[in-house]
Design goal:
553 residues; two-stranded antiparallel ribbon; 8 strands; 41% helix; 5% strand; cell outer membrane; SusD-like_N; TPR-like_helical_dom_sf; membrane
Length: 553
């Protein structure tokens, strides 16, 4: 259904939500009740469709053009990670500040993602509004067995949202050299995640709604995923904007991978350490097998007309735009991430890859062709872009042509912005299986990686220096950084594995040239003060503000 459903809400604590209604042709002269919606297959389908719709249309009024729901979050994630930044400023006349994810790109030059600033709402507020959409469905369908597939879809979505939130707000140890009290303040909230809001939460409960512990959060997430797994056993979505059983397995793989990073905890009901890594590998393989998906070919990856704008056989889950969900020319993924977008920021900012990551890509790895080479060779780049040679003249080294506008359209945003964006690709599952396995079986992990990389760089072998231990994990992580570049996922792996940002001496723009000592403190996000004031328990249990924590150029 093309209708976009808007929900009335107020914020308090996690978020205080009022009951929403969907206007229909029944009942006469009024609105549908929850019972009537549950009895109407069309209305129920509409409620389910509202979840992926709100993900790509939600607007918080932040006063910035990256304020377009889940895709805006993905872009912010990669700026926080330091793996994506504008490279246009590296050519004379270029302007790095045309990249609109500046608060997340320059956390040591700007303090806009501190709890007291509005940009801290991008993640927190969006996620709880997405959760509201899922909760509305769950509150309507209840335990009705005839609607179990609807329940399973909503629970899979809710698990995605909470899993993301938990990984963003889980305050893991981080060095902050210029913030004297950062570590002691972080330690005071160690192991806390986010408040829980369900379809049965009352307003009184939400006014004093504490952050779940890590164990509580994952018990809740797995409860949703277990129910989704049972409900979706025989379900095949009509489009990949709704989750399948394979996606549920993939979400479990992501969750277990995160828990594998904690090897010194003895949770009663949640596995950690090696046990969790084994489960991550198991569920990644289940996701691969259940999906029926195939690894993207070079032709699919590099196609200037359909490359990373159209669902293909490798995509397990996606956000799918229609003409009805294109908000305008600038509130759009393509407008920011595609060089084709002459009407937007993509061509101006030129999102690109750190030169030190690019230089590590094997010469025969076709993914290298997604980026402008250091010598800016037009003839080498021409087959993979919709730009003319004249337009290419102002494109800087290391700019990416991974994401294309619809049909390569460069001017008409109403056509160009109608694209799909991956939420989960089968390649992530192959690399998750390899990395999880590397933590307890290096030999098998090497074979898994080499088998996968045969699809990227023929003849690839794991370097001798990376045959086991942390070096093997790092090699797998590197390949994952290249594979998922720009897709908003790698932040969670870098945070989990305590990886340093190393951008002080590469092509990063001024203000983002820094090296961290392990994970960056801004990977532990802060809950907006405007939220905490409505849920006072959060005022004393928030993560410490992480900005201005390092010296930069």
């Amino acid at each position: 259904m093309n209708r976009i459903f808007k929900n009335t809400f107020v914020v308090a604590g996690a978020v205080l939500f009022l009951t929403g209604c969907i206007e229909e042709t029944f009942p006469e002269g009024g609105y549908a009740t929850s019972d009537q919606i549950a009895e109407s297959p069309i209305a129920t389908e509409g409620m389910v469709a509202s979840i992926p719709t709100i993900m790509i249309t939600n607007y918080l009024d932040l006063g910035e053009h990256i304020d377009f729901g889940y895709p805006g979050i993905l872009g912010a994630n990669d700026r926080l990670a330091g793996d994506v930044f504008p490279v246009s400023g590296n050519l004379e006349g270029g302007n790095q500040y045309t990249d609109r994810w500046q608060p997340w790109l320059y956390p040591c030059s700007m303090d806009y993602i501190n709890a007291s600033y509005g940009f801290s709402a991008l993640h927190y507020m969006n996620y709880y509004q997405f959760i509201k959409a899922a909760n509305d469905v769950l509150g309507t369908v209840g335990d009705d067995e005839s609607l179990k597939q609807t329940r399973g879809v909503a629970k899979a979505f809710r698990a995605l949202f909470y899993l993301d939130l938990v990984r963003h707000y889980d305050p893991l140890p981080a060095k902050a050299p210029l913030l004297t009290n950062y570590e002691s303040e972080r330690a005071a909230v160690d192991g806390l995640t986010v408040p829980r809001v369900t379809e049965s939460s009352t307003l009184d409960q939400l006014r004093e709604n504490p952050r779940m512990t890590r164990e509580e959060a994952f018990e809740f997430i797995f409860s949703d995923l277990d129910d989704a797994e049972a409900c979706l056993a025989d379900y095949s979505p009509a489009q990949k904007n709704l989750p399948s059983l394979a996606v549920v397995y993939g979400l479990k793989a992501r969750a277990y991978l995160w828990l594998g990073g904690f090897d010194n905890l003895n949770y009663e009901n949640v596995p950690t350490g090696t046990e969790a890594y084994k489960l991550a590998a198991e569920y990644a393989r289940k996701a691969i097998d259940a999906s029926g998906c195939t690894i993207m070919t070079s032709a699919q990856w590099l196609d200037p007309t359909t490359g990373f704008n159209t669902v293909n056989a490798a995509w397990m889950w996606a956000m799918i735009q229609s003409t009805d969900t294109v908000l305008n020319n600038l509130l759009s993924w393509s407008a920011h991430m595609s060089l084709d977008a002459m009407y937007g920021y993509g061509y101006l900012a030129q999102p690109g890859i750190p030169s030190n990551l690019y230089e590590r890509i094997a010469e025969n790895d076709f993914r290298r062709l997604s980026f402008v080479s250091p010598d800016r060779d037009w003839n080498a780049f021409a087959p993979y872009t919709n730009l003319t040679e004249e337009e290419f003249a102002t494109v800087a080294p290391y700019a990416s042509a991974k994401f294309h506008t619809n049909s390569g359209e460069k001017s008409d945003y109403s056509v160009a912005n109608v694209t799909s964006i991956p939420l989960m690709r089968v390649e992530e599952m192959y690399l998750t299986e390899a990395e999880a396995t590397a933590h307890y079986d290096a030999g098998t992990a090497k074979t898994l990686l080499e088998n996968f990389m045969s699809n990227r760089a023929p003849g690839y072998t794991v370097p001798a220096a990376a045959s086991d231990g942390d070096d093997l994990v790092d090699e797998i992580l590197f390949q994952k950084r290249i594979e998922l570049w720009g897709e908003g996922l790698i932040l969670f792996d870098l945070k989990r594995l305590n990886v340093s940002i190393q951008n002080s001496s590469n092509n990063a723009p001024s203000g983002a040239r820094l090296d961290t000592e392990g994970r960056a403190p801004w990977w532990n996000q802060t809950i907006p003060i405007s939220i905490a004031q409505r849920n006072p328990v959060l005022l004393t249990t928030n993560n410490p503000d992480p900005c201005m924590s390092y010296n930069v150029e």
